[in-house]
Each structure stands twice: as C-alpha cells, then as structure tokens.
Amino acid sequence: MAKESAALRRLRDRAVAYAQEDQRTDLLVSLLSLWIESENQTPEALAQFLGTDATGLSRLSLCRPPRQGAYVEDIEVIAGYSGCRVEPLRHLLRRLEVLTALTGSAPAVGQQHVSLTNAILLAARDREIETGV
C-alpha cells in the first residue's frame, strides 16, 4: 500500500471515528465494529485476518457494503482499494450478513455481545423439537 501523508492519515482516522460515533450503517465501519466486538477481537487481528494494515482497515471502514447485483465485483473493488485479500473479505462479509439476518438488523455497537457462532446456534434452537412418538 502506498505511503500516505500524516495529514491524510489524520483526516481518514477522523472520518472513521465520526462514522463509528454516528453508527453509520451505510458504511462497513458498523459491520466491522460489530465483528470486532462480537468476536472479542482487536482491529489489528481483523487487519491481519484480511491481510491488510491499519490504513487498509480504515479505508475498508469507509466503504459502502457490496451491492447485491454486483456483489463479487464490488468485493474485488473494495479489496483492491483497501489492500485486503478477496477471500477473507468475502468470508467476513457473508458471516456478518448472516448475523444481521439472524438479529433482524445490524445492532448498534456496544449492544450485541453474542458471538457469530453463538448467534447461529441460538437460531438453530429457536423451535421446540417435535417428537414423532
């Protein structure tokens, strides 16, 4: 990733902080924050999983989610812009889509403490088991 100026880095960091505080659900920052919190991880661990650095993670945070009609193409563009590897990014976004589908919407950061795996297990146990005896 190309080296950026200190001024550009400060501007980007302020934009990410603003988006988090404002809980901008139209940007990936809300989904990435949800993953960090629900999986009890750090931004550094997320960046490592995606194969990028702090600058790339900030760039990713300010992107809009992929569009349904152009999902694959959008993920490739987002990955290229943020310096992420395509497959881990695709995997992460799909997991977050499942979580938001199970919860009905993207929960506000700080209000969701169920891990992605536990949310899936809870959804699987949502009905009584029918016995055919």
Which keywords apply here?
single chain, mainly alpha
Structural commentary:
- It is a single chain.
- This protein is mainly α and 133 residues long.
- It has helices at residues 6-21, 28-38, 43-50, 54-61, 71-82, 86-103, 116-124.
- Helix 1 packs across helix 4 (54-61), helix 4 (54-61) packs antiparallel against helix 5 and helix 6 (86-103) crosses helix 7 (116-124).
- The radius of gyration is 17 Å and the shape is globular.
- Mean pLDDT is 77; it is low at 107-114.
Write the layout of secondary structure elements.
Blueprint: H1 6-21, H2 28-38, H3 43-50, H4 54-61, H5 71-82, H6 86-103, H7 116-124
Helix pairs in contact: 1-4, 4-5, 6-7
In short:
With 133 residues, this protein is an all-alpha fold. The chain has helices at residues 6-21, 28-38, 43-50, 54-61, 71-82, 86-103, 116-124.
Distance between the termini: 63 Å
Shape: globular
Overall mean confidence score, pLDDT: 77
- Give the biggest beta sheet: none
Computed structural class: mainly alpha
Write down the Rg: 17 Å
Assess the beta-strand content as a share of residues. Answer: under 5%
Number of helices: 7
Number of strands: 0
Helix content range:
55-70%
SSE pattern, N- to C-terminal:
HHHHHHH
Low-confidence stretches: 107-114
